């Protein structure tokens, strides 16, 4: 069966003023719309981020080490930046070898998760054991207190970890390091 479709063209008559307004509106929509389309179709390809400098990391390590000495502790202090690059590490005289890995893991966890390791430990302790076990299966992450995120102007730029004393002492030493760069 052949069916024939007939299309009818509607005829509209516009006054010269209406035609001018319609033309102007079309041009404005075309120009403005294309600009808006161009802006929305081209997402940014880069962004500006703050990063922790080696001078900033060394300043924090020096302050944390000085505070550890005041407390009579042989601490290890580690600092990672937001890209997981080790920026500074100091092992005070008499520090235990195991404290090196603990400090590194605390700093790494705080930088990676942008949370204090003690806060993570408290949160996981309140949840199901399987959640904590899953977290701890990830390499280099720890729930030992003494790791703190480094935040500058509201942006996470790294993590500091201290190990060698009790957990409250490690947190105190890490906080002394943070205080060195917070104005």
SSE blueprint and pairings:
Layout lengths: L15 H26 L12 H17 L5 E6 L4 E6 L5 H17 L3 H10 L2 H8 L10 E6 L2 E9 L3 H13 L4
Antiparallel strand pairs: 1-2, 1-4, 3-4
Tell me about this structure:
Helices cover 50% and strands 15% of the residues. The chain contains 6 helices and 4 strands. It has helices spanning 16-41, 54-70, 97-113, 117-126, 129-136, 167-179; strands spanning 76-81, 86-91, 147-152, 155-163. A 4-stranded antiparallel β-sheet has the order 2-1-4-3. The termini are far apart.
Question: What are its keywords?
Answer:
single chain; about 180 residues; alpha+beta; Beta-Lactamase; 4-stranded antiparallel beta sheet; 6 helices; globular
Reported for the largest beta sheet, the result is: 4 strands, antiparallel
Name of the CATH first level of the domain at 54-179:
Alpha Beta
| Biggest sheet: strand arrangement | 2-1-4-3
Q: What integer is the average pLDDT?
A: 86
- Taking the alpha carbons of the first and last residues, their distance comes to 85 Å
How would you sum up the global shape? globular
Summarize the amount of helix as a percent range: 40-55%
Named CATH topology of the domain at 54-179: Beta-Lactamase
Structural class assignment: alpha+beta
CATH level 4 superfamily of the domain at 54-179: Haem-degrading domain
Give, in order, the helices and strands. HHEEHHHEEH
Number of helices: 6
Contiguous uncertain segments of 5+ residues: 5-10
Which percent range describes the beta-strand content? Answer: 5-15%
Radius of gyration: 30 Å
- Which architecture name of the domain at 54-179 does CATH use? 2-Layer Sandwich
Tally of strands: 4
